Amino acid sequence: MVTADQPIPINGPDLPTYDELPVEPGGARSGWGLFGPTDSAGLMNLVTPEVTRAASTLVRTGERFALDLPTAFVSPAFFDRGVPRHTLIQRRPGLGFDDVYDNYFPQAASQWDSLAHVAARPGEFYNGATREQIAAGERNTIEHWGSRGIATRGIVLDVSASVAERGGPGASTPVRVSDLEEARERAGVQYRPGDILLVHTGFLTWYAEQSQEVKTRLARRGNTTAAGLDRSEEMAAYIWNSHAVGVASDTVGLEVWGTDSEDGPYGSLHRIFIGLFGLAIGELWWLDDLVRACNDAGRYEVFLTSSPGNHPGATGSEPHALAIL
Amino acid sequence: MVTADQPIPINGPDLPTYDELPVEPGGARSGWGLFGPTDSAGLMNLVTPEVTRAASTLVRTGERFALDLPTAFVSPAFFDRGVPRHTLIQRRPGLGFDDVYDNYFPQAASQWDSLAHVAARPGEFYNGATREQIAAGERNTIEHWGSRGIATRGIVLDVSASVAERGGPGASTPVRVSDLEEARERAGVQYRPGDILLVHTGFLTWYAEQSQEVKTRLARRGNTTAAGLDRSEEMAAYIWNSHAVGVASDTVGLEVWGTDSEDGPYGSLHRIFIGLFGLAIGELWWLDDLVRACNDAGRYEVFLTSSPGNHPGATGSEPHALAIL
Amino acid sequence: MVTADQPIPINGPDLPTYDELPVEPGGARSGWGLFGPTDSAGLMNLVTPEVTRAASTLVRTGERFALDLPTAFVSPAFFDRGVPRHTLIQRRPGLGFDDVYDNYFPQAASQWDSLAHVAARPGEFYNGATREQIAAGERNTIEHWGSRGIATRGIVLDVSASVAERGGPGASTPVRVSDLEEARERAGVQYRPGDILLVHTGFLTWYAEQSQEVKTRLARRGNTTAAGLDRSEEMAAYIWNSHAVGVASDTVGLEVWGTDSEDGPYGSLHRIFIGLFGLAIGELWWLDDLVRACNDAGRYEVFLTSSPGNHPGATGSEPHALAIL
Amino acid sequence: MVTADQPIPINGPDLPTYDELPVEPGGARSGWGLFGPTDSAGLMNLVTPEVTRAASTLVRTGERFALDLPTAFVSPAFFDRGVPRHTLIQRRPGLGFDDVYDNYFPQAASQWDSLAHVAARPGEFYNGATREQIAAGERNTIEHWGSRGIATRGIVLDVSASVAERGGPGASTPVRVSDLEEARERAGVQYRPGDILLVHTGFLTWYAEQSQEVKTRLARRGNTTAAGLDRSEEMAAYIWNSHAVGVASDTVGLEVWGTDSEDGPYGSLHRIFIGLFGLAIGELWWLDDLVRACNDAGRYEVFLTSSPGNHPGATGSEPHALAIL
Questions:
Q1: Which of A218, D51, D150, D185 has the greatest CB tally within 10 Å of its CB?
Q2: Contact C119 D96 (CB under 8 A)
C-alpha cells in the first residue's frame, strides 16, 4: 500500500557542500533535484535503513522521552491559530467514551513542518512543486514522511546558557553558529548524514512560567519574539553542511523571531530550510526533560523516532517523537 | 513537566497468572491494583527502560514500517464516527500553507484504545476510575501513555491463513488461541512481559478491495462483521498470561465482531482487556507490508515504537507506530 | 451593500403555464430564463414589494408560529448528515457565555434548499449555472434569498388526514394533486403568484413519537421512507401553475421518499422544482402548532416571513420562518 | 411542541418606570421578576399578539430590508472569536451540493445576545438564573425567543450625523440620550411597549472602508473602539422607560467601546440591559440600506420580524431580521 518513492542510495561523502549548490533566483543556494525531479520527501531520504540501524545501537539505558507537548500547553496559539476543541462522546453512558476534535491546528503545538508549509519563492515550493500541486495533495505534504516513519540519530544541542546570557529565550536572541558549534563540541560528536539536531534554547521552559497576559500578548502576530537560529548565510551553510535531515527546537519558529527585517536571501530560514533544502523544521518540541537527562548521563546522542501523521495532503503534523537514551 | 507516576519495578517471574487473579463481580478475573490504587497506565507500566533497551537490540536491517493507515482509508467510518474534514489555509497565497482539522475522530482510523475507552462494569473503569473522573480528565486517558511513549518488542502473529480457511477476515471468523499459538511457534519466540502482539488477520487487505457499497453497509452499527479474537475465557487467560502490554490487529475491534451475543463474563474482550486487565487494544493497524517483510526475513520480532498523542483527557489516539526490523 | 439583482416586474396573468414551458433534455419542462439569463433567485423574484404588502394585510390576531425545529430534534440526521456540536464558552467564568458550533449541517434540520442544492441534469443547475460557478459562490446559493428576505402569503394545506388513511406519514405514501386541491378548497383560497405552500402531512408529529431505534433505522440512506408529493407530471404542472415561489412541508424531502424508482423525467421532484423551476423547497418544517391554530381559526392564509441565512456560497439554510395569523 | 411559558398579559401603562424599580446589589436598578420568577424571555414577553398585529399595519410599500450581514463581512472577528469554515459537500459529483460549517461563532457577526450572554453579577444571570442552569440549558438561552419568533414595531434612530461630528463611529464616541431623543423626534414617533430600537451610528459603513490591517488591529481585544450608547444612569433609565424589548445597532457592542473604565453601576450596559432588564441587545446589524430608504420615505417606523435560532442552550444567534417598510 505504501507508495512512497524508494529512497535513492546516498553515499555520505558524496553529498555536495553548501558552496557546491547552485545559487537560486532569491540569492541563496538550492538543494533541489538531489533526490530526483519528483521527490517530495527531501533530505529525509537520507534516513536509510542503515542510518536507522546504526542509530538504534545508541540505546544504553532505554529511558524514553516523549517530546510532544500536551495539547493546549501553548494557549493562545501563536499567529492566530487555534487550540483544539475536544468533545468526549458517551455512546452508552457509563460504558465508555469516544473522542472528537474540532478546530485542530497541527501548527499550534509541537510540530514538524512539511515541505509544503513554506515556499522557496512565491508559488514555488521545494523541488519545484507548485501551489496547485500542493493544494491537490500531489506533492510535498506530510504523508511523504508519515508513511515511512523516521528513526535516526538525534543530537542534543543545548544552547540555553548562551541564550540566557544574551537576552534570554523570550527575546529575539539569535542562536549563532558558534553556539551550535560549542554545543556540538561539548556533546563530543561529529555530524553524520541523517542526523536530527535538537536545539534547546529554554524558550518553552520560560514560556511555561509566564502569566496568561504575557502569553496572550506574545501570541499576537506582530508581537512574537523568541530566540532562534540566526538568519545568515553562515547559518544556512552550517546546517546544510551538517547533512542533518531535520532541525527541531523548543522555540516558536526555530529561527529567531521578532527582528526587524525578513529581507534579503537569508531573511527567512523557513524559506531556505524548507523551500530550498528540503529540511524538516521542528517547532515547540519539549526538550527540557531530555536535556536534563543528557546532562546527567553526559551523553547527547539519542535514538530518535518520530511518526508524523500519515495524513495525505496535510502541511504538517505533531512529531510524535520519542528520544531513547 | 511530565508528571506521570513513576512505573513500579516489575519482576517478570512474579507477575500473577490468570488463575491467580481475583474474580470480579462480572465473573471474569481482574488485574486491578497491580500497579497501585491510583495507576492510570495499566500494563504499559511493564515497558520499563530495560524492556526498551532489550527490544532495541532486535534491530537488524533498520527497515521501518509505519503502521498507521492514511486518513480516511476507512470511509465511511465504522459505528457512526466520522472522517476528518481537512482545510488547507493559505495565509499569504503562494507563500505557504497551514492546516486545520474538524470532525476528527481518533477512533475512526488506526488507533489505541486508552483505559478510559470501555468500562469494566457500568460506571467502573480500569482500576476503579469513575465515569466522572474520566470526564474530568483525572484518570486513565491517553496522555498516561502519550507522555511516556512506548518502545518495546513487537511479536508479529500472522493468523491470516487460518482465518481465510474458516470464513475469511470480512466475516465473524474467530481467531482461536490455537491460531495464536501456532503463529507464535512459527515465529519461534517466547512471550516476555512488555511485548506488544501484532495480530494479522488480513481484514484491512480484504477491506481495501471492497466496493464503496460494501464498505458503507459494513460500517453501519449492527451490520459490522470482522474476524477477531475469540470471546472466551481461554483467550482472556492466554492474553493475560502472555504478559503483553498491548494487542493490536488489522481488524475493526480486535475481538471477533458480529456474533450474536455479548452476554456472559467473556462476551466482551474490550471489557476484559481494557476494563479489567489495563491492556492496550490496537485496532485498524496496517500490518500487511510488515508481515510480508517478516515472511521474507523469516523473523517475527521487531522493535516497536509508538507515540500516542500527549492529549490530556482523550480516550484514544492514533498509535503513531513504527516497526523496525 | 446588497448587490442582488433587481427583481423584474412580474405581471401575474402573463406568467406561462406549465404547458407553455419548453421541454428540456431530460423530458420535463423548464422555467429557465424567466428572470433573465444570469438570475440566481428563481421564482422568489415573484415576491415583489406589492406581494409583501398585500400579504401583510392578512394579519388578524398577530399570533406568531415559529416553524423551525429545535436543533437536534431530528437525530440522527437523515442521509448521513450530522447534528451540530455546540460548545458553550466561558470567557470569564460566571460573567457570561459565548457559543461555537461545529459539524453544523444546514440540511439536517428545518431548511430551505437553495437553487444550488440539486441539479437539473448532471453539471447543469438552475438557469444554466455550472457546478464550478456554484463551487465558486458565483451562482444560485442561498444568499440570493438571504440578502433580500422573504415575506409573502403562506397557504396552509393540511393533507394529513388523507395521508393517515393511505399508509401514514412514515411510509412512502404519495400526496396526490387531488389531496392538495381538496386542502386548497377547504382553505377557501385561490393561488396567487408569490405564495408559499405549507404542506402538512403529519410526518414530524409521527417521527417525534418513534423510538430511537426506529429513528436510527429510518435515517439510514436506503431505509428512509416518508410521505410526500407524488412524482408525476401532473404534480409538476400543478405546482408550476400555482405560481408558488416555494413549497415547504413537514417531511424529509417534500416529495414521497422510499419508492422504487427515480427514473424518468418526473422521477425526482427535486430536479424539477429546484433545477428546472427555480422553486424553493422547504423540508422538516414544524407545522403542527400552526395547523392546529388554523383549524381553530378556520383560516389557512398566513403572513409568512422567512430570513434564510445571508451566507454567501451556501447551499441551504434554516428557514427562520414565522407564520403570523 | 413549543413549551415556552405563556407570556403574561401586559398592560402598557402599568409597567414600572426606572425609578420605580428596586436597586440591586451592584447599584443599578433591576427588572427581575416582572414576568414571574422562572421567566427566561425577559422583556420580549411584551411582544404580544396585539403588538404584532398593530405593527403589521405599518407596512406601506412592502419593501424588505434583510438586516443580517453576510458571513465573514466582519473578519477577523472581534474579541478572538472566529469566522465559520464552510465546506461544500458533493455527494454525487455534478448532481448537487450540501453544506457543513465548523468554527461557527454566532457572536462573530450580526447577532442577538440572549439573556444568558452576560450576567448581572458574577454567577447571577437575568431573573436569578445561575451559571449552572444556563450551562445545563435550563434558563435564559436563545430558544426562549427562537421558539416564539419576534414581530413588532421597529423604530429607526439615526444618530450617525451626531456621531460623525463628535469623533466618528470608529472611535469611542458616546451616543447620548439627547442624540436618541433628537432622532426619535425627527422620526415623529412616541415609544410604545414592545418596540425594538434600531440605532444607526454608521460604524459598519465606516468599517467596510477600512484596510485589512486596520480591521485586524481593531478586532484585537484591548484595541477595539467603537461608537455606542453612553454608559450612564440617564441612558439606562431612558432605555427602560422606552419599554423597548430590544435595542440593536450597527456597532460592535451597542454600548460605547474602548473607554477607560468599566467600573461603577453603569460601567457596563450589557450588565444592565441583559442581566438586569432582560432586554435583547442586537449588534453588528446592517442598517445602512434601511436608513437610506427611511430617509427617502420620510418614515422611521417599520414592521420588524426576527427569527432567532431555535437552538436550545445557545447564548445567541444571528437575528434573521427583516424590516418591512
A1: D150
A2: yes
Chain A residues in contact with B101 by the CB 8 A cut-off are 101-102, 104-106
Which chain A residue has the Cα nearest residue B271? A95
- Look at B106 and A106 and tell me if their CB atoms are within 8 Å: no
| Cα C105 from chain centroid (whole Å) | 16
Q: Is C190 exposed, middle or buried (0-12, 13-18, 19+ CB in 10 A)?
A: exposed
Contact, B22 vs B288, CB < 8 A? no
Q: Rg of chain A's alpha carbons, rounded to an integer?
A: 19
Rounded Cα–Cα distance for residues A194 and A242 (Å): 9
- Give residue ranges of A with CB < 8 Å to any C CB: 85, 87, 100, 102-103
Least Cα distance to B303 among B147, B86, B107, B156 occurs for B156
Angle D244-D245-D246 (CA atoms, 0-180°, nearest 5)?
Answer: 95
Which residue type is seen at A176?
R
Cα separations in angstroms, A317 against A98, A115, A117, A190: 22, 12, 11, 29
ipTM over cut 0.90: yes
- HEC string for chain B: CCCCCCCCCCCHHHCCCHHHCCECCCCCECCCCCCCCCCCCHHHHHCCHHHHHHHHCCCCCCCEEECCCCCCCCCCCHHHCCCCEEEEECCCCCCECEEEEECECHHHCCEEECCCCECCECCEEHHHEEHHHHHCCCCCCCHHHHCCCEEEEEEEEECHHHHHHCCCCCCCCEECHHHHHHHHHHHCCCCCCCCEEEEECCHHHHHHCCCHHHHHHHHCCCCCCECEECCCHHHHHHHHHHCCCEEEECCCCCECECCCCCCCCCCCHHHHHHHHHCCEEEECCCCHHHHHHHHHHCCCEEEEEECCCCCCCCCEECCCEEEEC
Q: What residues of C are in contact with residue A103 (Cβ under 8 Å)?
A: 102
Contact D276, D120 (CB under 8 A): yes
- What one-character-per-residue DSSP string does A51-114 give? HHHHHHTT-SS--EEE-PPPTTSS-SPGGG--PPEEEEE-SSTTTB-EEEEESB-GGGSSEEE-
- Here the cell at position C135 is 463551487
Cis previous bond, D76, omega within 30: yes
Find the chain B residues whose C-beta atoms sit closer than 8 A to any C-beta of D. Answer: 85, 87, 100, 102-103
Which residue of A lies nearest to B287 if distances are taken between CA atoms?
A1
Q: What phi, psi does D318 have (nearest 5°)? A: -55, 150
| Diameter of chain C measured on Cα atoms | 65
List per-block mean pLDDT (blocks of 10 residues) for chain C, which spans 325 residues. 42 82 97 97 98 98 98 94 95 90 97 98 97 97 98 98 98 98 97 98 98 94 94 98 98 92 89 98 98 98 98 97 98
Residue of chain B with shortest Cα separation from D101: B102
pLDDT digits (tens, 9 = 90+) for B112-157: 999 999 999 999 999 999 999 999 999 999 999 999 999 999 999 9
CA distance A21 to chain B (A): 23
Identify the CA nearest to C309 among candidates C106, C56, C101, C39.
Answer: C106
Burial degree of D66 (CB within 10 A; 0-12, 13-18, 19+): buried
Residue-wise pLDDT tens digits, D7-18: 444 445 589 999
Closest-CA residue of chain C to A104: C102
Local structure of residue A118 (DSSP, 8 states): B
Examine the pLDDT at D181 and tell me if it is beyond 70: yes
Check C311 against D95: CB less than 8 A apart: no
In order of A32, B90, B94, D25, D62, the CA distances from A131 in angstroms are 16, 10, 6, 60, 50
- Rounded CA separation A128/A130 (Å): 6
